[in-house]
Design goal:
CATH architecture of the largest domain in chain A: 3-Layer(aba) Sandwich
Strand order of the largest sheet of chain A: 4-5-6-9-8-7
Largest interface: A-B, 28 and 29 residues
Largest sheet of chain A: 6 strands, antiparallel
Number of strands of chain A: 10
CATH class of the largest domain in chain A: Alpha Beta
CATH topology of the largest domain in chain A: Chorismate lyase
Radius of gyration of chain A: 21 Å
CATH superfamily of the largest domain in chain A: Chorismate lyase-like
Helix content of chain A: 25-40%
Oligomer: homodimer
Order of helices and strands of chain A: HHHEEEEHEEHHEHEEE
Strand content of chain A: 25-35%
Distance between the termini of chain A: 37 Å
Number of helices of chain A: 7
Structural class of chain A: alpha+beta
Chain lengths: ~240, ~240
DNA sequence: GAGTGGTCTAGACCACTGG
DNA sequence: CAGTGGTCTAGACCACTCT
């Protein structure tokens, strides 16, 4: 028997799409409360339960955050709770200090073949490259090289990076209106080259984690490509499998 | 103002607890269908919607699997779909072949301090140690050393491991009634020692991923501790951050 | 107390599976 | 066709937050 409706989409998913539009268009911005379930139900002409189910899914995807008695908020990287959502590196001991980002360089370039492919832009189009260090308790643990599409990050400077208190993604969100939704990391083991070894204060040739990350914003659009080299003598990469 | 009920637990969570008991006790076993939502609602004296919400959570935790039109099933590691739930290693190219497990050794020992701590058993109590190779397209890529509490895995032998077609966890589930629910992995970069290098057919000193995994069954009880060394010249560890 | 999200119910109907 | 999970509704009440 043929499917009766091969493209069947339940009502709450259509509502979800409408809400995603409100997010992408900036009608609702990070950290702000969205309208109450009652209001949304009225606005979309459905029952509260249907709106609820749409919100449920979006909360599960970390797009929204529910706060009982207060309202539903657009998730934000400014929220300290989402600090470790993308950083999986953990100190071996009881060290509870916050990691500190130390921007080193920031320059313009043209996208090569690989960067263009990963960022889904034209080869030769402008990109911005950032190098920075991540320190735990004043100890350098990660060297990152970050590739950003120039189109989106116009006006990004080293001074801006150095002046920012908070995570990179919180800066991207606040200054460029770009919210990072999800990421993919490819992890390999590599030997430290001389330059990296110096920066991480380890010996040349020491095994490091190479963590290559592609980060996506709304609509699964890739907007960041970074490669980090992690020293794992006093830290480890923690992954929870569910 | 004091909280009116500091230990408030909604009805659907209580239902969930009851269903967890049914799972742990073996009343419902992996791969089998559980009673329909209607039946469960009658059995527990609640509405279908409440049962539904309990099942929703358990499905989100990969304890149950819903199949529209058929019923709700207890998740099983025999299901091919759950094969890559815990193995995050991916070949670089288009290689779609299944990894093959090659058990090498299996012997008895007494738990040392660390093994005892991780497995939450007494130091000196019996454990079983398994060494095995994981091959992709006949190429050795991972050497695993696996520590299991002897209490639980009585009767496990090298022959049993070698005779088994399927994943380790599917064997554990079928032969020992132990279902693995979740795991934590700690990843570091290390240099290959001579013995490992030979087994993985790489040079001594080559950087490898060290992946230490603790696996838990129902009730967050740790029942497996393993350390794998991954060669990442033709494969990488893929992690999705959401 | 007013407003928010969170729970629970009862009932109707839809989509999918299998005999 | 009967039985399953999936959707949608409308309404009642609860827990939490802030004023």
């Amino acid at each position: 028997m043929a499917q009766t409706s091969p493209t069947f989409s339940p009502l709450y998913r259509q509502i979800k799409s409408l809400m995603l539009v409100a997010l992408e268009s900036g009608e609702w911005s990070p950290g702000q409360a969205i309208p109450s379930e009652q209001e949304l139900a009225a606005r979309f002409g459905v029952s509260q339960g249907t709106v609820r189910k749409a919100i449920d899914e979006m909360a599960a995807e970390n797009l929204l955050v529910r706060k009982q008695g207060k309202g539903t908020y657009v998730a934000s990287h400014n929220d300290p709770r989402s600090l470790f959502r993308f950083l999986r590196l953990v100190p071996e001991g009881e060290d509870l200090s916050h990691p500190v980002s130390v921007p080193l360089e920031c320059w313009r370039a043209k996208a090569g073949q690989e960067a263009a492919r990963v960022l889904a832009i034209e080869p030769g189009s402008p990109i911005i490259i950032v190098r920075r260090l991540l320190e735990f308790s004043a100890k350098p643990v990660v060297v990152d090289e970050i590739y950003l599409p120039g189109e989106v990050f116009q006006g990004l400077t080293l001074e801006m990076l150095q002046g920012w208190k908070g995570s990179l993604y919180s800066l991207f969100e606040t200054r460029f209106g770009l919210r990072m939704i999800r990421a993919e990391e490819r992890i390999r083991a590599v030997a430290a080259d001389r330059r990296t070894a110096e920066m991480l204060r380890v010996k040349e040739g020491v095994p490091l984690l190479s963590v290559e990350r592609v980060t996506f914003t709304y609509g699964d659009r890739p907007v960041e490509w970074r490669r980090g080299l992690y020293s794992t003598d006093e830290h480890f990469y923690l992954n929870e499998l569910n």
